[in-house]
Hints:
- There is one protein chain.
- 48% of the residues are buried.
- This protein is mostly beta strands.
- The strands form 9 sheets. Strands 5-4-7-8-1-2-3-6 form an 8-stranded antiparallel beta sheet, with no helix packed on it. Strands 33, 34, 36, 38, 39, 40 and 42 form a 7-stranded mixed beta sheet that branches.
- It has 8 helices and 44 strands.
Amino acid sequence: MMYRILLIAILALPSMSVRAQVEPCASLSLYCIDLVPRPEFREVSGRVDLARAASAFGLAVTRDGKVRYRLIAQVDGLPDPSTLGPYTRYVLWAMPLTLWPMTNMGDVSNGKQELGEVSLNKFMLLLTAEPDGDLEERTGPIVLRGRSPSSRLEPHDMFQVSAFADPADMPGGRSGSGGHQHHQMMASFAGPSGPAMHPGVAMMDAMMTLSPSEPEWLPAAAGDPSGLPEARPREVLNLSDGDQIELHAYPVRKRIAGREFAMLGYNGQIPGPLLAVESNVTVKVTFKNDAPFASSIHWHGLRHENRFDGVPGMTQDPVPPGGVFEYEVTFPDAGIYWYHPHHREEAQQELGLYGNMLVLPPDDSYLPPADRQEVLVLDDFQIGPGGQVPFGEQKTNFALMGRFGRTLLINGEERPTFEARVGERIRWFVTNVSNTRTWNVSVDDHALELVASDLSPYLDPIWEESITMAPAERYVADLYPEEPGRYPIVNRIQSLDHTRGMFFPEVDTLGWLEVQPSSGDATGRPADRTPAQKALAADLARHAEWHDKTPDKAIDLLLRTEGLPPLVEWILRADQSYFLPVEFSDTMPMMNWSSTGNEVEWVMREPSTGRENMAIEWTFERDSVEKIRITNRRDSQHAMQHPIHLHGQRFLVLSYNGQPIEHPVWKDTVLIPTGMTADILVEFTNPGHWMIHCHIAEHLETGMKMAFRVN
Ligand SMILES: [Cu+2]
């Protein structure tokens, strides 16, 4: 009998003591905070998901580059607050780790609820019992608390690596006098062909032992570019149907930061000529290659004929130095597009081979008219202590994070001035042609009205503080200066000092907006939707059902390395407690520079088949619509953002981490922040053999690409 009672008691135990607890966050999640109860509230459980805040961009950030998160709280087991004292409710507070200032994020009760927005680099959440009233600071007892994933960044992670001043002392470290080791030793003493250090970030001595395994390459005239023709600023070519032009890639000399560099230009220009066309015209382009590489021209974003897509090995043979290729280019969609090589992009683009196409209808059917239009190309150029930093001879260097430059250029120039008048509607067509840099550009404290992106306008304008854009993306923004003055155009980001486990702000002035008094005849701000905006509304209605469907295909993004120096392996391992959603800068340039295509492979993997990169070839029926899930894996050896580009088609981003996006627009490139999953909906309307790839040039060069056919 006793035994039986005991048994019943044991069987009954779970239902008595274990409540329906809130499911904890996935291990080391970048976008979820476990709320931990104080000991007297053991029966309470909770978590807060960090959802993407509403934004026109792939990542929502403030003007100063802090990530904006919408908090979604789930709590279970909270007792009636009056049992804890004179309290009527529970409140969630957010604050920096210094505990001040506190921000009231909203009331919380058992269940799931949307709260306010947080934009702090590292932060803490407290859930407290509180009385009624408009509270600015907590007064009652703490029930649950948690810390942001970013606060896992601590100095000790890297400190343990720095204990090994000489990498040969590390477990598995190299010793002896092998050829590779010899090369490394030479590089550390033979002179500064490497990158500039990041000012303000201390570097471990051991980093100076690193150098790339791939032989170096620089343009032949790099030592003395004085014999090359000087690069000219971009010209505008207004083209009509049937026009024929030549784009000729050849070496030029360009002055940047007070020094002369051997670079490459189309028709001697950096950026290359701006092709201004009406939608649906056809233009013949004779491409002459006198660059020192095999090359091609890819017409980024155009849904035109496959055989002119400019992808060597897929749609054409590479054009050898001295060779020629005839393109026929059509422009089906209004907007801003760009052209660039699709072979050794990381070198050819960095050296100046990029240009825009501005495609506008003859009427106002794309966007309401503006008073002034500018086409802005954002690029960063890398200069090391010894001048131009060499490229890899056959394979890319900077293979981990891509080549960041610290000299920031608009239209190839340092700090240009753009003019405007008070009362005008100014429209900027912006393209990011950097190898890897994601920008966060603002114009002093002006509000920016985002009106379009890659392949269409937004349904309705979106007001933003800054333009946050990954490589190859385009955004169209209108601004309305209200006072005369000279306003700085700035890139404002948050960088990470890995060694100290600390965030720090960076601000670079890119140029100026010079505003004169009103001329009195500006157009103002029309509110009606244009036909292109109405077309997007119809597209969205047509595709609305797709939100709830399971994806047809999936791709995972990850990194694989082999043969990296032990020091770098150690750092990659030590750095895994947290990854930034977007790495806006390179604060470990030596490690990044020394990694090459010999050691690094960036991977697109199809989880259902295990196939990777160019072994994947999807087939779609023409005019089919498919939902594709892209997961940027947090458990990758190193994880960072990837701007994924689909050739020849257009797609809508449906959701990030399962949450529908607020401002859909037709895209050809989507920024997938670290550890996030994006669902995209692709219209496969354009037949041919096409590529999907990461648009970080070094990631493309180290394998992150795959193919699909539309029949
Ligand atoms: Cu990438």
